Amino acid sequence: MLTLFHHPLYASCRFVRIALGEYGEEVSLIEERPWTRRKEFLALNPAGNIPVLLAEGDHPLVGASTIAEYLDETRGVFQRERRLMAEDPFARAEIRRLMDWYLVKTEAEVTKHLVHERALKPLMGGEGAPDSGAIRAARANVRQHLKYTNWLAATRDWLAGPKLSYADVAAAATFSILDYMGEIDWREFEAARDWYSRMKSRPSFRPLLAERVRGLAPASHYADIDF
């Protein structure tokens, strides 16, 4: 069985979990707090970042993009219509662009700050009170990312094109954390809300909807597929 070192409030980790679920792969989860610099974990990944997937033969694969490429090469090519990466090179480029948008850009401008200030600081100790300025800036940026997602969802069947892809998985992983924290008002973004509802209804998403983060209760609508 595959083993994933993850944290439930890291979008990159949720991305890998959803992707594994889409491919019907069972995975053993080990929750990792990367800020503790645990010696045993650093032996697997000296960089200390997550996610890390222990693949066949216990080979450590580090980072969401690396893991996604590995899964495509070892699982996706056999999945036909369920493959999360396209065959056409331009379609592949668009999927990768949107993966980067959500797992890097949205993470840097929104998710990282809200998660750090609202959820992780109390766990880390010695970090002080939440930075209200960082929270305000991140909340302002949420709207721009939702507007863009709303446009994508309104003009395409799925975010990157006609089929479900890694782009949808990346966006859903990111927004699921913000939705858990009650940071999204979906009423203003109907197309994005309908797309996210489709993602929430997929079997690969069920473990995330059932999961609860210690010390942080989810928004009341979080597990409701129909909001």
Proportion of residues in extended strands: 5-15%
Oligomerization state of this entry? single chain
The secondary-structure class comes to alpha+beta
**How many DSSP E strands?**
4
* Range of helix content: 40-55%
Which spans of ≥5 residues are poorly predicted at pLDDT below 50? none
Mean pLDDT: 95
Q: What string gives the helices and strands in order?
A: EHEHEEHHHHHH
Name the overall outline.
Answer: globular
CATH class of the largest domain: Mainly Alpha
The CATH topology label of the largest domain is Glutathione S-transferase Yfyf (Class Pi), Chain A, domain 2
CATH architectural designation of the largest domain: Up-down Bundle
| Cross-sheet strand order for the largest sheet | 2-1-3-4
N→C terminal distance: 34 Å
Number of helices: 8
The figure for the number of domains is 2
Main sheet overview: 4 strands, mixed
Q: Cα-atom Rg, whole angstroms?
A: 17 Å
Domain GST N-terminal: 1-79
Subunit structure: Homodimer.
Pfam families: GST_C, GST_N_2
Domain GST C-terminal: 88-219
